[in-house]
Each structure stands twice: as C-alpha cells, then as structure tokens.
Amino acid sequence: MPDFDHQSAPPGAIRSVVVAGGGTAGWMAATYLAARLEGRGIAVTVIESSTIGTIGVGEATVPAIRDFFKAIGLHDFDVLRATAGTPKLGIDFAGWAGEDTRFFHPFGLYGLPSRGVPFHHYWLKLAHAGLGRDLGDYSLCTEMARNGTFMLPVDNPVNDLAVFDWAVHFDASRFAAMLRDLGQQRGVRLIDDVITHTVRDDETGHITSLETQSGLAITGDLFIDCTGFRSLLLGEAMGSSWVDWTDMLPCDRAVALPCAASGGFDRPYTTSTARKAGWQWRIPLQHRVGNGYVYSSAHISDDEATATLRARLEGEALAEPNMIRFGAGHRREFWRGNCVGVGLAAGFLEPLESTSITLIQTALEKLVDLFPDRACAPALAGEFNRATTLEYERIRDFLILHYHANRRQGEPLWDQMRAAPLPEKLAHKLSLWRARGKLVRYEWEAFFDPSWLSMYAGFGLTPAAHDPLADYFTHAQVVEALDHMREAIRAAAAHARPARDFLARLAPQAARA
Ligand code: FAD
Fold first, then answer.
1. Annotation says 88 is catalytic
2. What is the pLDDT of residue 158?
3. Which residues contact 299 (CB under 8 A, 6 or more apart)?
C-alpha cells in the first residue's frame, strides 16, 4: 500500500480526540491512538492533573503487552531499561492449594499433542495409573522459573515443545513517564489541569467539551475517559451505571508497600501468596520489589492486613503503605455516545492475573477497529460493549476459579469462596473438565488452554476420565513419549541463563534481539 499524504479531514470525520486522565490508561491511549491514527491529521490531547496523581500501582503484565510496545514503536529492551523492568515468565501461586503448596501458571505450552489428542490427556492417563509427574515438568517456562533463569524465545534452540512467551514487570510511574515523553514527541498535546465540568450537547447527548479549573474549555469529537475509578466522563457525565461483581469477587481493598530488592533479581515471575483474607503480590523490579496485600475488608482489618504485609516483606520498606479501595465490576456500557471508558474508568477486576493493563490494550485495539466518525453510530458502540462485556466475564470466571478451587481449610473467606455458586459458563467449563479433562474455550477469552490447565492441575482437580483416544497406546509407550518430552524441555532450559545476567545484558549498548 502506498503511503498517502494527509490532505484534509473528510466531512463528518473525527478531527480531535481528547483523553481525560494521564495514568497508565491515558498515556497508553494517547500513544496508541497517535501511532495508529498517524497521517490523518487527528489531534490527540491529554488532560491530566498533577495534583490528583495516578493510582500508582499496576506493575505486572501479560505477554500481549509486548505487542502494544511494538504497536507504538518501542522495543522491549527500551521499556525494560526506562522502567527498571524485569522479565516475567508467569505467576507462582503459593499457598492457594493449601499451606506449603505452590504451582506455576506459565506463559507457554505444556508438552505436545500426539495423534490428534492434546498432551494433557496422556498426562492424565499416566496420572490415573499412578505414573504421573508434575505437569510443570513439561513446561519450559516453569522449568526456567524453577531455576531462576531466562532467555528470549528467539534464543531457544530446541523445538515446538519449548514454545513460550514472556511479559514484563515495570515501574508504573516510569512507564507512564516514558509514554508521556513518547506521546509528546509524536505531537500529543498535554494539558495539566483539573477537569471540573463535562459539557454535553442537549440534542445528541454527546460530550462537546471539558471545562477545567483554570478556565479552559477543551473541545473534541471523541472523548476517552481515563480518569481512573472516578470515571468522570463515562460514569458521572454520561451516566453509564456500574455492574457490581463484589458478591463473586469479594476482595475490595489492597495495601501496597514497596521494599528494597535485596538479594538481586532471581525470580523472573510474579508471586501470589494466599493469606488469611486474600493474597499477597510480589513483583520484582530492578530497583525495588513491589508488594501488596489484596484482601476482603469483611474478613480482616486494614491494620491487620498492613501488619501482615510488613511482616512478610523480604527487604526494607521504602515508603509508607498505600491503602487502596476498589470493587470488582464494570460500567454497563463501556462506550456511550462519543465517550469510551478505558482503564479503571471502565471497570476493575482484582490484579490476581495482571489483567487490567491488557484490558486497556484490547479496548484500544477494538476502538481503532471500530473507529467511528463524528456521528458515532450506536452499532459500533454496541459491538464494543458486547465484546468488552464478554472479555470481562471471561476474566472474572478465570479469577473465580482460583478462589473456588482453593484448598485452604478453616479460614472464613476461603471456606466461603469454595462454597459460593459459580457463574453458568464457569460451571459448564468445570463440569467438562471434571467429567473428561475437556478444556472449553469461548469467544473473547483472555486465557487459553494452558492457563486453565495450570489451574486445574495446580489445584489438584483430577477429572474422572481422560480422552479414550489416549488409551489406544500402552502406558509404557506414553511414559516413553512423555519422558522424551521432559528431556527435550530440560535440554532447552539448559540454554537459559541466570535471570540477573539477562538484566545485565540490558546495558544501553546491548545488542537488540
Ligand atoms: P489512574 O492511574 O487512577 O489515572 C487516572 C488519571 O486521571 C490520573 O492522571 C489523574 O490525575 C486523572 N484525573 C482524575 N480526575 C481528574 C480530573 N478531575 N481532572 C484531570 N485529571 C484527572 N493492572 C495490571 O495490569 N497489573 C497489575 O499488577 C495491577 N495491579 C494492581 C493492583 C491494585 C491494588 C490495583 C487497584 C490495580 C492494579 N492494576 C493492575 C490496575 C492498574 O493499576 C490500572 O489498570 C492502571 O494503572 C490504569 O489506571 P488508570 O490510568 O485507569 O487510572
């Protein structure tokens, strides 16, 4: 396709996009739109308030974030350098299947299918015969995480078995600053002011301008609400109501407390440790470790949660505890009129699987895919809302599975969560897993088969049966094949290097992979 020179905006076209809020969501929106809408003369403006600030958490991601970096013209290494970031191979779940247990949710595959039957049915066949090994033995990501090593997928010499991906941990404020610089270099206009009023057209109901404390009226054609939990535009001005899911996901608070990164970087993954009334995160960065306790305020006081977190820090605390309140749920309409909510302004699911930032990314991808003209046809918003609702529901169900399958006995939150009724789609998935080890995938899933498998296996949810097509081979044949896979995984893992060496390679002159 030839590169066109921009002439002038066609009649009715969007000429300016206003992003309200400059946290992770606001700057991801501004940089992504500036990149994807380039060459059309569409002005992008961000209004953020340095007096209000950002939420200051949100430092673990999923691999899709690297597609975002690419879309805005950033290299993974540039991000790791600028944000004191580290690589992430998955999440280590400690204590969820009972005290002193742990299992790993990897960003990669387990084993290989054979003769049309998914790998895990062979693994289940051996488990049913008492010959099973840990599922993680067949995952390169898990093997590297166990060894505290890392390599880039391109450096993996082996074979299809060793397919894996990786995400990053980053310092949220440095990430926002990096995007702010990039956005401004690409022509995004920044206004540091407090939005005081949203002006709407009487006839269409569309937003026409945002008024600010210093007396500005910022006009635009399309408004992206990234004002965080306040949801000033979508929630307050446009009246999109809140769909509350706290009955299904009762954790409603977090206390965050960074500590010194003593001992160096040797865990290329996030750790999630179950506690009495919730769970604790550990996110390793180059210059510090992010920690937080996500908890249900009905089951523990703020003081006790803070004391628990302090007592479990692995290094000296670097700040005062940051207390955050939230609720699980989302705006009923994510896009109404000419206003689209992105980030916390649109909804929130607790950070158990690091999904908020990926929801920002998919919202922006969908917005560009459905990019409107000034009329903002309701059908476009309708499709955006349909897809986003499904995405939220799928992630919600995956998170609920973590709580439902827990094996912690005698603690009120955990006992309550095991007994709680399940959403219909999750109940269906579980019934198929329990009956025959069948993995079910619906439209707009953020997590694919290996992720679900890691949970089922990690929690010891053994199905009643496996695929009978796996029974056409003897146990000895299957043992031999799986041993071969195990060896191939180990051979691939031998090429990985200590994770801290990978970071050392990130010096500015390091070769680009
Ligand atoms: P904010 O950071 O709150 O930004 C809001 C912006 O709006 C700010 O710039 C603010 O100044 C501006 N603003 C607000 N009101 C006004 C006004 N009146 N005028 C002008 N500007 C205004 N996500 C992950 O993917 N991974 C994680 O590990 C993760 N951990 C989390 C842990 C916790 C405890 C919580 C609560 C969230 C976590 N998240 C995580 C979510 C993640 O933090 C957010 O999705 C992400 O930071 C985006 O936030 P935001 O930009 O929507 O909101």
1. yes
2. 64
3. 250, 276, 277, 278, 412, 413
* Four-CA torsion 65, 66, 71, 73, nearest 10 degrees: 130
Q: Tell me which residue of 261, 299, 319, 326 sits closest to 403, measured CA to CA.
A: 299
Q: Given ligand 1 and candidates 227, 280, 399, which is best to mutate, with the most ligand atoms within 8 Å of its CB?
A: 227
Q: Report whether pLDDT(7) > 80.
A: no
> For 302-321, what is each residue's pLDDT tens digit?
999 999 999 999 999 999 99
Residue type, 352: L
Residue 209, pLDDT > 90, answer: yes
In 73-148, where do the E strands start and end? 86-88, 90-94, 102-106
Q: Provide CB contacts within 8 A for 28, sequence distance 6+.
A: 68, 179, 342, 343, 357, 360, 361, 364
**What is the crossing angle of helices 424-436 and 449-458, to 10°?**
70
Determine the 3-state secondary structure of 271 from DSSP: strand
Question: Residue 508 has what pLDDT?
Answer: 59
Tokens in use for 507? 């010096």
433-441 long-range contacts, CB within 8 A, separation 24+: 433/461, 433/463, 434/461, 434/463, 434/464, 435/463, 435/464, 435/465, 436/463, 436/464, 436/465, 436/466, 436/467, 437/120, 437/121, 437/124, 437/463, 437/465, 437/466, 437/467, 439/118, 439/120
Q: At what angle do helices 378-404 and 356-369 cross, to 10 degrees?
A: 160
The pLDDT of 64-91, averaged and rounded, is 97
Q: What is the pLDDT of residues 214-253, one digit of tens each?
A: 999 999 999 999 999 999 999 999 999 999 999 999 999 9
Ligand 1, residues 18, 19, 31, 57: which to mutate, most atoms within 8 A of Cβ? 57
CB-defined site of ligand 1, < 6 Å: 21-26, 47-49, 52-55, 57-61, 172, 194-195, 226-228, 230, 232, 254, 292, 324, 326, 343-345, 351, 354-357
Residues with Cβ within 8 Å of residue 313, at least 6 apart in sequence: 257, 259, 291
Which pLDDT value is given to residue 510?
A: 42
Q: What is the pLDDT of residues 433-462, one digit of tens each?
A: 999 999 999 999 999 999 999 999 999 999
Amino acid occupying residue 267:
R
